[in-house]
Amino acid sequence: MNNGFEVLSPGLYTSLQDLGRFGFEDRGVPTSGAMDEMSFAIANALVGNDEDQGALEFTLTGATLRLTGNQPCCLAVSGDMALSIDEQPVAPYQRLTLRPGSILRITRALSGARGYLAVAGGFKVQPVMGSVSTLMRAGLGGFSGRPLQKGDWLPLNGAASIPLTTGSKPEQRLMPQRERRPVRVIAGPQDDHFTSAGMADFLGSEYRVSEQSDRMGYRLTGHAVAHSKGFNIVSDAISRGSIQIPGNGQPIIAMNDRQTTGGYPKIATVILADLARLGQAKPGDRLRFEIVSVEKAESLWAGRQALLKQWLNQVRRAAQ
Asked: Half-sphere exposure of residue 153, counting CA atoms within 13 Å on the CB side?
């Protein structure tokens, strides 16, 4: 019998994701992919996978999975998650071995919103449009184009178990769920559609992530941002991190499963280096924004990527 996971409990919203589905936004298909690509990459590195191998993404609460088949599997969980194997607590950010018949229970996020489960060799799933990422509203990718359900069986590709080595958590700067600084943004592309007072309110106010937030976008509540030219524009492209301001003045941050075009002016765009941190935001969290230059944004992204690469290389060397 081939190895696989039997889903005993799916959690609140558990889906298969990779780094995203690229090249189809001109046809209305968003990239999807892991909301926190750093934690996603760390989970894959811990089990020796390529960085773009599909992994399970948990939101707030995790899944309970039983390993079926006759071979053990090597796995790792990233994110600040509480988990156990056969009711014995274990820590995230390390290689773990699951034996046939054993039960992995990922109960909840202790901080942040999301965690990731990677297995050595990955899941045996056919890519759709070059990606295994789940886009639920279009029924694309993943397992039948939807989050996990109780009773699902998730086949594994299978890979040789990697010997356990001394594990260590990545340093704080690679754990987005622990960041507390303002979310850094670049102004625009339609920042001229807002009054100077509106821009000052946007940068000087604290906003709450509302319960009407998901992988498509975060609706924020707080001080209304005043428009200067009305709240409608000719629809244009929306990227991950675009911050739209509709007629009620309450910001909406476009996320991974966003629509690809929209007709509200965009006051700012979240920089790449802060998108993983934003992917860990949950309803009730409070956000503030800070304007940085394009040059600063590029420098922050390069530094973050260099730090991640350094840590991933250390993990891979330890596994050799």
From this structure: 8
Q: Taken in order 284, 107, 110, 252, is the CA torsion positive or negative?
A: negative
Per-position pLDDT tens, the chain of length 320: 579 999 999 999 999 999 999 999 999 999 999 999 999 999 999 998 988 999 999 999 999 999 999 899 999 999 999 999 999 999 999 999 999 999 999 999 999 999 999 999 999 999 999 999 999 999 999 999 999 999 999 999 976 555 555 456 787 778 888 788 999 999 999 999 999 999 999 999 999 999 999 999 999 999 999 999 889 899 999 999 999 999 999 999 999 999 999 999 999 999 999 999 999 999 999 999 999 999 999 999 999 999 999 888 888 777 66
Give residue 112's region: left, alpha or beta (phi > 0; psi -120 to 50).
Answer: left
Which CA distances in Å does 190 have to 80, 156, 262?
36, 46, 12
Cα(154)–Cα(98) distance, integer angstroms: 15
- Name the CA dihedral angle for 179, 183, 185, 190, rounded to a multiple of 10 degrees: 150
* Rounded-to-integer distance, Cα 300 and Cα 307, Å: 11
CA 173, CA 307: separation in Å to the nearest integer?
Answer: 8
Q: What is the dihedral of CA 52, 61, 35, 189, to 10 degrees?
A: 170
Half-sphere exposure of 98 (CA within 13 A, CB side): 35
